[in-house]
Amino acid sequence: MARPPSRRPGHNRKAQYSLFASYVVAVTGAAIGLLLIVVAIFDPTGFAGIRAVTAELTRPVSVGLKNMVSGVSSIDEVLAAYWRAGSQNVALRRQVEADRNRIIEAKAVAQENARLKKLLKLVDEDASQLLTARLISSSSSSARRFARLNAGRWQGVQPGMPVRATEGLIGRVHSTTPNTSDVLLLTDSGSIVPVRRANDNVPAIATGAGDGSLEIRSLSAGRNPFKPGDLLVTSGIGGIYQPNIPVAVVVRVQGEIAWGFPLANPSRVDAVVVERAFEQVVTRPDPGAPAAAEGAEPGNVATP
Amino acid sequence: MIDRHLHYVPRLGRNPSRFRLAGIPVITVMLGSSVTALPVIAQSPVMPPFGLLFLLSWRLLRPELWRAWIGLPLGLFDDMMSGQPIGSAMFLWTIMLIGVDAVEHRMIWRSYRQDWLIAGFAIIVCMAGGLFFARITGGGDVRLLLVAPQMFWTILLFPFVVRQCARIDRWRVMA
Asked: Which PANTHER family does this chain map to (chain A) (predicted)?
């Protein structure tokens, strides 16, 4: 095939000018685009407000589709449950028997805890939960890992609030629109979470790798203390995430770095909980009451 | 009666509406960009950028349809839908369209394979550029290897998308 007819308009002056003008517009627009990105380097959420238009428009579609597929997406689990259902049933029953005793013990401990706190006159209200919502879509074609939440500014969601599921931490709110908000997932390469090992408090930093795994770097010098199977929970440092939210499990150790996988899979969880930032919960507005903010160091805020 | 299996019967002297002629390509590109509204919570960049694929398909199928500035509004819409910083696709798509214009001037022969080659280069440029912009706007240390699989199957998907575009195009120009 010969090449398509040339776009050069020949001797027609008007057509020549029109073609030239189109290139001028294109180059100017591209320069404006570049300028917007330069602005975004310094203020990543600055122009994200424009996104409110499309976010609000596509929200009903995404919510409807999500409702439709939420039953379908777990179908493999349902089918897998039939496999060896009998032996599994027996094993699970034994597990329940064993767990029942533990639960009773834990309840007693909790009661004792409450009694001791009362003796010490410590007030420990858990006013951190804000609301429960669903993740409806995500930035599936981009290198960044954002998920869209079905609740926004009008529901009280603010940028910086941590988002968690029952299984573990999901991420934190990045930007909000009236009825939706973008959640920066744990696995985004721009997300940094201060964590500690659950059983012995070895502190570390969990950074997303962008492909669903987490890069965990120990804060202590010397040999890498982690080994596969270690459970990591948030440490509460930085003032964003509550302490003791499960984050990840270590699967591989490679020199200085340990690789982990998040415990909560955002594509599997049904609903997520938006919490108030830890610092807001533990610091009280009135200066008279001494705040129990030893765990929160505001200078060390975990923002990228 | 005319054969009832013929859905569209072209008639002489009738023209398709202007909306169909000009609007359908724009709408297909915007629908391609809107794929991110599907309720998929992706853990890694897996979804091919369908907006870019449709734009390239229309540009290579119908060189006379759009001028290079069409990359600005369509790119802005794509930025609003994808998680990329605003301005990323605006810049990359426009530059890519100007680049395709320049390449077309220099090529003597064009066929399906050359189109695929041009599209392949354009996809690599746009996705690597998008990765770079994501990186400098707070994305942290993102490696090129992360989007390599996505690049690969986006290039493989191009012939399919171009065929769908051709099918839509046949309907578009038929009265």
From this structure: CELL SHAPE-DETERMINING PROTEIN MREC (PTHR34138:SF1)
Residue A21 lies in a domain: no
CATH code for position A134: 2.40.10.340
Give Dmax (Cα) for chain B. 66
CB contact under 8 A, B90 and A29: yes
Q: Which residue has the tokens 């079905």?
A: A150
Residue of B nearest to A2 (CA): B109
- Partner residue opposite B107 with nearest CB, options A3, A188, A210: A3
Query: Looking at the 3D structure of chain A, how many domains does it have?
Result: 1
Angle between helices B88-106 and B71-81 (to 10 degrees): 140
User: Collapsing DSSP states into helix, strand and coil, what is residue A181?
Assistant: strand
Q: Residue A151 belongs to what domain range? A: 129-286
Whether B3 is in a domain gets the answer no
Residue B32 domain-assigned? yes
**Domain annotation covers residue A187:** yes
Residue with the two structure tokens 């976010």: A55
| Domain span holding position B76 | 18-173
Interface touch A143/B42, C-beta < 8 Å: no
What's the mean per-residue pLDDT of chain B? 87
d(CA A101, nearest CA chain B) in Å: 38
Q: A22 CB near a chain B CB, below 8 Å?
A: yes
B1 lies in a domain?
no
Asked whether A234 and A247 are in contact (CB, 8 A), the reply is yes
| pLDDT at residue A84 is higher than 90 | no
Question: What local confidence, expressed as pLDDT, does residue B37 receive?
Answer: 87
Helix (H, G, I), strand (E, B) or coil at A111: helix
Provide the number of structural domains found in chain B: 1
Q: Round to whole Å and give the CA distance between A264 and A166.
A: 8
CA–CA separation, A297 vs A293, rounded Å?
Answer: 8
Residues in chain B within 8 Å Cβ distance of A30? 71-72, 90-91, 94-95, 98
Contact B41 A135 (CB under 8 A): yes
Q: Tell me the pTM.
A: 0.81
Mutate to test the interface with A, among B30, B38, B43 (most CBs of A within 10 A): B43
A271 and B CB contact within 8 Å: no
